[in-house]
């Protein structure tokens, strides 16, 4: 009997929506995966902004809890801010945790894609400030804030997809990028799932949003705090490998699935 592939749940980044990952989802589905991307409340556009880290957390947990309760195994892909959400949402849902309770299903891997990898009680803004202290010469992000509780990235084309040369592709991608709830910036993690589940961290060497040195800073800190079951993979691309390095990213998922899938 052919082993059943795990389901893939992708937790998208700030300013993004599920449509931002269409090319990647198509490629994953062509490889036989069930793919789900919850549309996070922090980018749903309600005015004034109502979504935040904690409503995003509840949404993602509900999605994955439903899968594992049905006995399915899951690989969680966490992109950028999605790392903050996934870390907060997914404690107690690992295959190992559920097996100890006599339950089938669970999360097999957390794959952080150039994502925030933070401990409990840490906010995105605190980490961003730490990045600047560590490297004052690093390029600074520029945000535009509105009166509805949202912010946008002022130069997203150059920050998110600086390795994409096709301007038609770039324009179509940037058309999916929109406002994100400001609340998320200053809300601390209350849980830390990467302490419970095997982790793959994907570095993006040409990243202009979370540069390599900033990614490495988070990984090093997580190791100091006890992250041991960690695999590091580097891609020579920008902050959006789901668009700029789709084949390579699918190959990483395939490898992780081949190491973990069960009948």
UniProtKB/TrEMBL annotation:
What residues does the AB hydrolase-1 domain cover? 8-251
Check the record and name the InterPro entries matching this protein.
AB_hydrolase_1, AB_hydrolase_fold, Sec-Metab_Biosynth_Hydrolase
- UniProt-listed SUPFAM superfamilies: alpha/beta-Hydrolases
Q: Which Pfam families match?
A: Abhydrolase_6
* Protein name per the record: AB hydrolase-1 domain-containing protein
Tell me what organism the protein belongs to: Gnomoniopsis smithogilvyi
